[in-house]
Amino acid sequence: MRRVLRVVGIVLGAVVVLAAICFVIVFVTSNREVDARVAAVPPPSPLGRGSVERGKHIFTAVSSCVVCHRSDGGGGPFINAPAMAVLNAPNLTRGPGGIGATYSDADYDRAIRRGVRPDGTRLLIMPSWDYVVMSDDDAASVIAYLRSLPPVDRVNPRVKLGPVGRMLIATHKLQFDATRIADEGPPPPPPPPMDKVAYGKYITRIGGCMGCHGVHLSGGHLAGPPDVPPASNLTPAGIGNWTDVQFMITLTKGKDPNGHVLNEFMPWRTIRDMSDAELEAVYAYLKTVPPRPDGQG
């Protein structure tokens, strides 16, 4: 009996040592990934003409930046899942704790459209892959709006990674958008608003729809903590029988034609402030997307 207990003790000790080694490897590797610097990425082209009004519309409605950075731009807690991560969106204003006093327009642009900080480190939770196609004028407008915000006195702690989050980063299951952007090459030029389908695709991309519903827009559990329901299928296989009116009512009232109330993770409360022309363009584009079964991204 003593021999059996001794063997069991040795095995358990070996397991504990192995687990400790794995933890150290994951901890060191994830820190290395988070702290890794890339070569400074310049803006893809000179910023265009900025409009504070247009920038506010993109920030508050189209791209739903207010969901993370709040309506005052001061940021704050937006994910509290200790096993995954505790995340606070940064303060974008020029107030105490904010980045506005030190960021140049090019710094803002690199963060928004490239996912890279001025020091060359990559932003972890920032949907720059969605924003990389943003036009020069729209990017300039967002920056102009950020410059117009009153200073907010708010110091937000940086990301605190949990064991699951560290594992995902160490194994490259959780990608940095900066790396994803670099791997895909330069974005296409933005379309003119009069091309409804192409403009709808543009709004869909900078609106973050593909970030949650997948590049093919067929949904699945692609973003957010485990308790968030899978994203819906936006291809004709999912909303094929919806009329344009039903589509717009869904995004402005938060309830689909079947009476299903949209989950709060879906930012319909900000999307509802998009213009009718923008929502109509999105609908026109979604009708052209190849149908796919639910949950294929």
List keywords for this structure.
single chain, 297 residues, mainly alpha, Cytochrome Bc1 Complex, Chain D, domain 2, 2 domains, three-stranded antiparallel beta sheet, 14 helices, 3 strands, 46% helix
Short summary:
The chain is mostly helical and 297 residues long. The protein has 14 helices and three strands.
The CATH topology name of the largest domain reads Cytochrome Bc1 Complex, Chain D, domain 2
**Overall domain count:** 2
* Separate helix tally: 14
- What is the rounded distance between the termini? 55 Å
Radius of gyration over all CA atoms, rounded: 22 Å
- Percent strand equals under 5%
Order of helices and strands: HHHEEHHHEHHHHHHHH
Strand order of the largest sheet: 1-2-3
Assigned CATH class of the largest domain? Mainly Alpha
CATH architecture term of the largest domain: Orthogonal Bundle
Helix content: 40-55%
Walk me through what this model shows.
This protein folds into 2 domains: 52-162 and 176-184, Cytochrome Bc1 Complex, Chain D, domain 2 (Orthogonal Bundle); 196-286, Cytochrome Bc1 Complex, Chain D, domain 2. β1 and β2 (85-89) form a beta hairpin. It has 297 residues and is mainly alpha-helical. It has 14 helices and 3 strands. The model has no long low-confidence stretch (mean pLDDT 84).
How do the strands and helices of this protein lay out in sequence?
Elements: H1 2-35, H2 52-62, H3 66-69, E1 76-81, E2 85-89, H4 105-114, H5 128-131, H6 136-148, E3 160-161, H7 163-170, H8 177-184, H9 196-206, H10 209-213, H11 236-239, H12 244-253, H13 268-271, H14 276-286
Antiparallel strand pairs: 1-2, 2-3
Helix pairs in contact: 1-7, 2-6, 9-14
